Amino acid sequence: MKRSAFSLHAIRAAALLLAISTLAGCDTLNDWFAPDRVNYKATGSAPPLQVPGDLSTTQTQPQYTAPPVTAALGGAPTRNATAAGNSSEGVPNTADPLGMHIERDGDRRWLVVDGRTPDQLWPQLEAFWRDNGFVLKTDTPATGIMTTDWAENRANIPDDWFRRTIGRVIDFAYSSGTRDSFRTLVERGANGTTDISITHSALEEMLIGQDKSSSRWIERPRNPVLEAVFLSKLMEKFGLTEAQSKQLLADARPATAPAKIDMSAGATTLDLTDGFEVAWLRVGLALDRTNFTVDNRDRAKGIYYVRYADSTQELKHDGLFSKLFASAPAKQKTGKEFLVNVRAAGAGTQVAVVDANGQVDTSAEAQRLISLLHAQLN
Question: What is the pTM assigned to this prediction?
Answer without folding.
Answer: 0.63
